[in-house]
Specification:
The relative contact order is 0.08. Helix 1 runs parallel beside helix 3 and helix 4 runs antiparallel to helix 5. Helices cover 46% and strands 0% of the residues. It starts with 10 loop residues before the first helix and ends in a 36-residue tail after the last helix. The protein is elongated, with a radius of gyration of 33 Å. Among the domains are: 45 residues; 73 residues. The protein is mostly helical.
């Protein structure tokens, strides 16, 4: 379709023109007075020709330009993460268990009669699950595989394409 300056402008056309005018004002090509006047005219424009007239003496810029390669950051070196028994995630998990258990015992000590020790219902099962998981770390694959706190292994592999699905050309 050929360009027709008499086509009615849409709200999107007006918004894009306003964004371009803002960029030109920020770059110093328009004075505050010129910017204000052109912005008012952009929002009052009825046709795309009127919008083009507001921008014809300004250089074309791309609002969606990607950053230069010089601006890219170098990736940080990843530290090797361990999920074995001495890893930071296990230390954090045991620290949370110990903190919650201590808080429960403090609350029990301040509010309850010394006969019934209800914090054991919190600390016992949770601690037993943690201890079992901690003891079985790396035991699932002969000690070679790394497992997380809940005993899960690394990310599961999903099929790459139709060839891995039954009845779709795969085996």
């Amino acid at each position: 379709m050929a360009y027709d300056p008499n086509i009615r402008a849409s709200d999107t056309d007006r918004d894009r023109a306003a964004a371009l005018l803002r960029e030109h004002h920020a770059a110093g090509r328009l004075t505050p007075e010129e910017f204000s006047e052109r912005l008012d005219r952009a929002f009052a424009a009825k046709t795309v020709g009127e919008i083009d007239d507001l921008l014809k003496d300004l250089p074309g810029i791309d609002l969606y330009r990607l950053p230069d390669a010089a601006l890219t950051r170098q990736p940080r070196q990843r530290q090797a993460r361990s999920s074995g028994r001495g890893s930071g995630s296990w230390r954090a998990a045991w620290g949370v268990w110990l903190t919650v258990t201590a808080v429960c015992f403090v609350i029990w000590g301040l509010t309850s009669a010394p006969g019934y020790v209800w914090p054991l219902w919190v600390a016992g099962p949770w601690g037993a699950i943690m201890a079992c998981s901690w003891l079985t770390v790396n035991a699932g694959r002969g000690g070679r595989g790394q497992r997380g706190i809940g005993g899960e292994s690394g990310p599961r592999q999903l099929p790459r394409g139709d060839e891995d699905l039954p009845g779709r050309g795969g085996t």
